[in-house]
Amino acid sequence: MLVVLPAGLETAAPAAAGLRLAGTVLAVAALWAGGLLGPWASASGWVLTALAVAAAPLGVVRAVATSGAVWLVAGGMIVGVAVKHSGLGERLARGLVARIGGSYGALLAGIVAVALVMAFVMPSSMGRTVLLTPVVLSLAAALGFRHGSRGYEGLVLATGTACIIPAMAVLPATVPNVVMLGAVEAQHPGTLRYFDFMAAHLPTTGLLRAALVVAIAWLLYRQRPQAAPPQDPRPLTGPQTRLLLILAAALALWATDFLHHVSPAWIAVGAAVLCVLPPRPVLPAPRLAGAVNVKALVLVAALVGLGAAVAQSGLATGLGGRLVERLPLDPAAGGAWDAVLVAALSMAVSVAVTTPGAAAVVTPLAPRLAEASGLPLEAVLMAEVMGYATALLPYQVPPLLVAMAMGGVPLRRGAKLTLAVAAASVVLSWPATIVYWRMIGLLGGG
Fold first, then answer.
1. d(CA 281, CA 22)
2. Do the beta carbons of residue 42 and residue 89 sit within 8 Å?
3. What is the rounded CA–CA span in Å between residue 119 and residue 100?
4. 330 vs 332: CA distance, rounded Å
5. How many CB atoms neighbour CB 141 within 10 A?
6. Is 321 inside any structural domain?
């Protein structure tokens, strides 16, 4: 494999194995950027290549095998299948959306609110998208929005966007977040906590961006419904009630991890075990066989391994040094400008390698960026999230692509919404986030 390394990088990892590993990392980044292969094919190809050329050291393999991100996704998949199999997800979605009101704006607000609420109880953005989109499609048909109409496309796009962008405020709720968590655990265990992460992001990345999605979708796609939203008066079933209790317990444990210090991954695994535990499982054993999406697990495992490889191969050190030289980071500026620069870097990388790839590539650079900016490592990581949560185009966030495919919405229509939401996020959400972080002391008071 022929790989051209940036000038000066060759000194960061002189060992042949380190150079080979750096080469595989650059190759998979090029595949993602060029869109030649899908994310899963590129990721699995990287795993096979790294093993074939003996480039992956034992530390990388161990980081993947013990990564909380991988186990978090596995547990979340089983919980997500239980939510879908029991009918709880569809019931919650229909019930909440139906009660929010009949106007187009209220309908959008209900859909986005449901998506954000589900981020706390169903830790899989793809699972939420697959579950919520058919409900919204049925709701659109019941309200008289014909396929391809402006109002129809607005509902579909708002659903896909809300299932991923505001959900970045919840640590276990998106693949980029869990990939970042896995990369951080490999190098700096204990740095990220569920409650601290949510406290830093929920008001702005979560609630404010959810409001922006509603407002922009209303401005671009508003159309008067032709009928009232349908009601769902059915009572909860036994499995749905048990699943609600399991989810409530998991959410309580996630929110109090600063007290018990149990990883969100093991809480998700515990919830998954309770879902399949006899004698009255919420998810019967025959359904469990198809619960785990192997492709998604391979993708997350490869991304976690990619992050560990970037750190251990010397690529992070070399690339981090060159970025530090070019970014106008200034510890004397008080942290706000440096946080914006880190966010801009993360946003730019996500354009090239999608949001999960950005989490894998930028996270290993965080220590160097923290050293150059004078920011705490946690602040750099939070700024990274602010950046990759700002998706310019639909291909950067696969759940939105899935919603568009399910609803038959053209790519150019989705790009109009994502560009508008991204611009509004940079202009409104980013400054609000910086001010809020100053208030809570994340950036310091200088």
1. 46
2. no
3. 19
4. 5
5. 13
6. no
269 within some domain: yes
Percent of the chain with pLDDT over 70: 69
Nearest to 95 by CA among 276, 307, 279, 240: 240
Domain count, the chain: 1
Boundaries of domain holding 169: 68-226+233-288
For residue 326, the 8-state DSSP code is H
Round to whole Å and give the CA distance between 402 and 136: 14
Q: What is the pLDDT of residues 312-337, one digit of tens each?
A: 665 555 555 566 677 888 777 668 88
What is the pLDDT confidence band of residue 340, given thresholds at 50, 70 and 90? very high
Please tell me the distance from the alpha carbon of residue 146 to that of residue 164, in angstroms, as a whole number: 25
What are the two backbone dihedrals, phi and then psi, of residue 438, each rounded to the nearest 5 degrees? -65, -40
CA distance 121 to 128: 10
How far is it, in rounded angstroms, from Cα 383 to Cα 442? 11
The Cβ-side half-sphere exposure at 27, using a 13 Å CA radius, reads 20
**Residue 43 class from Cβ within 10 Å (0-12 exposed, 13-18 middle, 19+ buried)?**
buried
418's CB contacts (< 8 A; 6+ apart) are 161, 391, 392, 393, 394, 396, 397, 400
Band (pLDDT 50/70/90 cuts) for residue 446 is: very low
| Closest to 80 in 3D by CA, of 89, 69, 71 | 89
Q: Nearest to residue 171, comparing CAs of 141, 200, 212?
A: 200
Express each pLDDT in 194-229 by its tens digit: 889 999 999 999 999 999 999 999 999 999 887 666
- Inside any domain, residue 138: yes
Alpha carbons 440 and 117: distance in angstroms, whole number: 24
Residue 329 lies in a domain: no
The Cα–Cα gap between 404 and 393 comes to: 13
